[in-house]
Amino acid sequence: MKNFRKFAATLLCGTLLASCGPKTPPSDKPVETETAAPAKTEAVPRVARPDVPGLTAAYAALRKLQIADVDYKISLDLDSESESFSGRLIAETEIARPLQQALTIDFTGGEVQSVSVNGQEIPFEYNGYFIRIAPEQLQLGPNSIAVDYTHPYSTDGSGLHRFKDPQDGNVYLYTHFEPYKANRFAPMFDQPDLKASYTIDVKAPADWQVVTTTREDNIEDLADGRKHWHFPATKKFSTYILPLHAGPFVVWESKAGDIPLRLMARKTLAPNVKPQDWFTFTQQSFDFFQKYYGIEYPFGKYDQLIVPDFTIGAMENVAAVTFNEAYVSRGEKTQAQRQKLANVIAHEMAHMWFGDLVTMKWWNGLWLKESFATYMASLALATNSEFDDVWENFYLRSKQSAYQADQLPTTHPIEVPVPNTAEAFSNFDSITYGKGGSVLEQLPHYLGKEGFRQGVSSYLTEFSYGNAELKDFMEHLGKAANKDMEQWTQNWLYKAGVNTISATFMCTDDKITQLTIMQTAPKEHPTLREQKIQLGIYRLQDNIMTRVAAVPVTYSGARTPVKEAKGLPCPQILNLNDEDWAYVKTNLDEKSVGQITRHITAIESSFTRLMLWQSLFDSVTDAKWPLDDWITFALNNAGAESNINVIRLIGSQLEAASAYAHRFDVPGELRTERLEAIENFVWAKINSSPAGSDAQKTWFETFTQLAHTDEALNNAAQLLSGELEINGLPVDQDMRWQLIVLLNRHQLGDYAELVEAELQTDNTDRARNYAISARAIRPTLEVKKEWLDNILNKRDQYKLSQIRAAASALFPPEQLKLYRDMSTQLFAAVPKVSDTQDTLYNKAYAMLFPIACSKKEVAQYDQTLKQHNELMPALGRVLKDRRQQSEMCLAMERVLKKPSAN
């Protein structure tokens, strides 16, 4: 972030530190030592490290020169009652060159009791962020650095997180370190290119299971009733993927070939876990990846733990992967939910090779491991699973989020400089995952499937247990496919923005005589790119819109004539990115749009229908088609749709349309009419969809997001009480909470009592988060003030997951008036929130800011950004996006107010 860099640049190397031990000489000055190497040995250059959180790329590069090798021994003392833990770390470190300044060991937020080097206790300095050891305390070559320390458990899902189950009182611990939180667990050189092995021993309660990368080789019974777990040394990997999990987990076991598998969950969640699904998806993924990579799984065993309070979906800790408890349903999963679980299992497993075995040198390479795993997970499922609609789901999830992010002011190249660890975290976004994965998806089309696979395999083989950079990966792909990748890399990976393609064509005697693809780029990001697409030519045959020809073509530049199309049937619909090979927006020709709006239900391919529904809604959000006209089109055509992925897309689009209708400044009767039409349609679909079908459950989800009339809310209340039943739709526990949140949102009936009564029967932590959402969403100014005060001034009384539950619910679209009453206070607190330097808290606070279709709100965003131009990226980027999204909303409103083109 900018203020960090400015501050760092002005500090002198000899900044004074608050000392936890005896004072040492100024530690950044060159010091002559008896152990100095001969004069011919190259000295390490000097890079200042100021007394601030985080790690800079420049200092990490220096420390990589200082240290030739490192391995850790970690001893921990854990119990179920304390708010903190104690440990002893021994770093077996080789100093590579004479030190010109202190060596620092990252350790944020703990207490240091002592530091020893080679068996002798030494003076040290500790400023709350890192330990500093003066150069005269270290010798050239091998050193053994021991640190005795304590550290509080985390409550924000990072570091070593502690969770106490409200149902049975059991305590569970798990680690989450990416990108720079391993040093909240133990003093470490916490950067990805200082790989190490880890030998761990843990004293813990007797009924706990303790899990790390290796299986224990000894468990001792202690005199105090606890047990002492001993684990053999791991292979070398980076600090951010080191796992340590502990607690009275329920354990299920299986195998994938010769690889031992375990699945774990806390006791009160275990009855809802379906281990056979987890093991089946895991076994299928292992079967695919070992064959595809051509490298056997390198880490021996494979554990998967389902953990509470997790702030992301899952994390690829080596051989002990953690998953969010949201992947466990308290009712029957839909096929889409099952596929989502299979996808995340495959994603994390892909990392065992790409990310864990071979790791980026610094966080500018974060995108590559995440993009690769995003693409490879879908490839694994498409190749070796029960699911036959994997690429449709990839299009729905990964690609759509990428397109949206790539058109916002905060878009960025896939590969970006990362000056420090704070900004590394800010790049966990839809560009990192969705666009990167989509760009990689096109490479097998561009290079050939086998060329791509061979390049991946040779890359992983060469850099196993080491670190690599983007150029290494691209060189291996280019060599395998015999193609120069330099220009492709520059255009796709180092430049931001999404292109749009359109086509013109001429026909004679119903045959194509000329077809040309045109490519454009936004003026802010003017790069034109090259990629391979497939043109789909569709014609109506026996009342079915059928693809009669498919034309693969590689386009580049502003215009690409498609000679291969000459003589093919004249299109009634020309789908420019058929089967979604490419990462590109499409602008359909008028003839195709006319046919789509008349015949969308007749299109044979569900994937094509999915893409064309999205294209039409894009024309609404691009302010080219009035929302009213789209709503009419959707309600006239959606009822005939039977494909679940298209139904899911339409449901989400109707939710979005309802939200925009609330935001627009239009006459009340028009708003009421369109909102009631959407609500009535969705309620009818719940009742008419096949009993127990995924479609029925999808429409129920949509209903809970947009129901608002008294009739609809009374139906919701009766569903909750059991007075009303819908054939085939069992209302499970999570669905009950969705209904309770809905009733609180509109203050219907005994809405407040419903929350308290439900907590009596469901006292899980998930239920508590639902209850917070239900309370925060109530449409009164008093409630909003109370919860904003909790978020701003009482956040130490809440876990991060609870702060997020409140923030995400506080200002739904129909409560914009309440947001406006509070907006001055919300914006005034922005610098205070940013100054906490807490990325996760800043992300949570950013959830409070809505898309507001008003010039006044746009001006508020603009003014705040001008006054505070050095905000933490996690907050500042969201404010920039909301400003543009609000401007887009105004543009949509202006189109709405024009007479309809139809």
From TrEMBL:
Residue span(s) of domain ERAP1-like C-terminal: 575-884
Signal peptide start-end: 1-18
Entry EC no(s): 3.4.11.2
InterPro entries hit by this protein: Aminopeptidase_N-like_N (IPR045357), Aminopeptidase_N-like_N_sf (IPR042097), ERAP1-like_C_dom (IPR024571), Pept_M1_aminopeptidase (IPR012778), Peptidase_M1 (IPR001930), Peptidase_M1_aminopeptidases (IPR050344), Peptidase_M1_dom (IPR014782), Peptidase_M4/M1_CTD_sf (IPR027268)
Domain Peptidase M1 membrane alanine aminopeptidase: 282-492
Swiss-Prot/TrEMBL GO biological process terms: peptide catabolic process; proteolysis
GO molecular function: alanyl aminopeptidase activity; metalloaminopeptidase activity; peptide binding; zinc ion binding
Cofactors: Zn(2+)
Annotated Aminopeptidase N-like N-terminal domain residues: 71-241
A Pfam family: Peptidase_M1_N
Any single Gene Ontology cellular-component annotation: membrane
SUPFAM superfamilies: Leukotriene A4 hydrolase N-terminal domain, Metalloproteases ('zincins'), catalytic domain
Catalytic activity field: Release of an N-terminal amino acid, Xaa-|-Yaa- from a peptide, amide or arylamide. Xaa is preferably Ala, but may be most amino acids including Pro (slow action). When a terminal hydrophobic residue is followed by a prolyl residue, the two may be released as an intact Xaa-Pro dipeptide
EC class of the enzyme, as a word: hydrolase
Keywords, in A-Z order: Aminopeptidase, Hydrolase, Metal-binding, Metalloprotease, Protease, Signal, Zinc
NCBIfam families: pepN_strep_liv (TIGR02412)
UniProt record similarity statement: Belongs to the peptidase M1 family.
Protein name as annotated: Aminopeptidase N
Organism listed in the record: Microbulbifer donghaiensis
